[in-house]
Amino acid sequence: MSIAIDLRGKIALITGASQGIGAQVARTFHRAGASVVINHLGTPRTTADAQAIADELNLIRTDSSSIAAADVADPEQVRTMIAEVQARHGGLDYLVNNAAIIKDRTISKMSYEEWDAVIDVNLSGVFYCCKHALEIMREGGAIVSFGSIAAIQGFFGQANYAAAKSGVQAMMRVLSREAARKNIRANAIAPGVIDTSMAATIPEAVRAEMLKNVPLNRFGTTEEVASVVLFLCSPLASYVTGQTIEINGGWRG
Fold first, then answer.
1. What residue spans define the domains of the chain?
2. Cβ(168)–Cβ(188) below 8 Å
3. How far does CA 112 lie from the centroid of its chain?
4. pLDDT value of residue 198
5. Which residues partner with 67 through β-bridges?
6. Taking the mean position of all CA atoms in its chain, how far away is CA 69?
7. Regions of the chain where pLDDT drops below 50
8. Is residue 43 within 8 Å of residue 117, measured between CB atoms?
9. Residue 212, helix vs strand vs coil
């Protein structure tokens, strides 16, 4: 007997979903039956990319996908986006905090602006989205936020990114306690190196060194990450909350 994940009638908001892992999460939730809201930054490029994904999904199922422009680092933009989701859908079932940026530099050379930018998007942005999404989330919902292997391994030059992702993972543990009264679960995932356009910029010699730490001897795919996010939001994970799930091929650096 097969086991299916059926999210028909559910609404999912995925931040930073105009490309990469976020776009794959949107496609995966849509395939499971959910209606998806694709958040993007609001630039001409992200608007075009997000709209293309929404159009693709709406061809499969009419009026099942929409886009929402908001810089998650701006609490007022987040507040407006959540209000628009409420007005359009009447509530929210799943929030996936995927939006993130990197600005790598050693601590001694990192500018205040580089520190603030990464913390504002990767940590404060998750807080703003959780805070306002909770106002409209229905009982039994779920939040999944992206941590990172960087929070565990402490990669050279990523003090801002690692600090933000560590904070996200800790925030989800707190939120799992606070949201439990509404039967809303909160978890984090910590992906390793995933084959995305960002990973493609890693020099080949560095990629080879990274692979030495991965027992499965390959980098992950966006589909593999999206599948774990889907599981954590599904009824199959109804007793999983406050956890950080590592998705890294067994990386033990």
1. 11-191+229-247
2. yes
3. 25
4. 74
5. 38
6. 16
7. none
8. no
9. coil
What tokens does 206 get?
């560095």
Query: For residue 204, what pLDDT is reported?
Result: 87
CATH code, residues 11-191+229-247: 3.40.50.720
pTM (two decimals):
0.97
| DSSP string for residues in 132-156 | HHTTTEEEEEEEEEE--THHHH--T
pLDDT at 253: 66
Q: Which tokens sit at 210?
A: 């990274």
Q: What is the pLDDT of residue 41?
A: 98
Model pLDDT, residue 72: 98
Q: What is the pLDDT of residues 123-164, one digit of tens each?
A: 999 999 999 999 999 999 999 999 999 999 999 999 999 999
Residue 161 is among the residues annotated as catalytic for this protein: yes
How many Cα atoms occupy the beta-carbon half-sphere of 24 within 13 Å? 14
Q: Which residue in the list 94, 112, 161, 239 is annotated as catalytic? A: 161
- The position carrying tokens 């027992």 is 215
- Report the b/e string of 207-222 with b at 16+ CB within 10 A: eeebeebbeeeebbeb
Give Cβ neighbours of residue 252 (< 8 Å, ≥ 6 apart): 213, 215
- Cα separation, 217 vs 125, in Å, equals 33
Pinpoint the alpha helices (H) of the chain.
Answer: 20-31, 44-60, 75-89, 112-119, 125-133, 150-153, 159-178, 204-211, 222-233
